[in-house]
């Protein structure tokens, strides 16, 4: 299997980790909305890329 696919899956997991990281009570609490937004964007971008690659594999290009 292509190593790029595993990298994309790791990026999706990292996006979920950014959403779930507990920042309350730390000096990073003020950037909690930013980390959540970055996590959501990472999940969306890499998931859409994997869907695109899957469709292209099914179509045969």
Quick summary:
By secondary structure, the chain is mostly helical. The chain has helices at residues 3-20, 32-59. Helix content is 75%, strand content 0%.
What does this structure look like?
By secondary structure, this protein is an all-alpha fold. 75% of the residues lie in helices and 0% in strands. The protein is built from 2 helices and no strands. Helix 1 packs antiparallel against helix 2 (32-59). The longest helix is centred in the C-terminal third of the chain and has 28 residues, at 32-59. The protein is elongated and about 50 Å long. The model has no long low-confidence stretch (mean pLDDT 91).
Characteristics:
61 residues; 75% helix
Topology:
Blueprint: H1 3-20, H2 32-59
Helix pairs in contact: 1-2
Give the end-to-end Cα distance, rounded to a whole number of Å. Answer: 17 Å
Number of strands: 0
C-alpha Rg (nearest Å): 15 Å
Which segments are poorly predicted (pLDDT under 50) over 5 or more consecutive residues?
A: none
* Main sheet: strands, sense, barrel: none
Structural class, by secondary structure, is mainly alpha
Query: Helix content range of the residues, please?
Result: over 70%
**N-to-C series of helices and strands:** HH
Number of helices: 2
- Give the overall pLDDT as a whole number: 91
Strand fraction equals under 5%
Q: What general outline do the C-alpha atoms trace? A: elongated
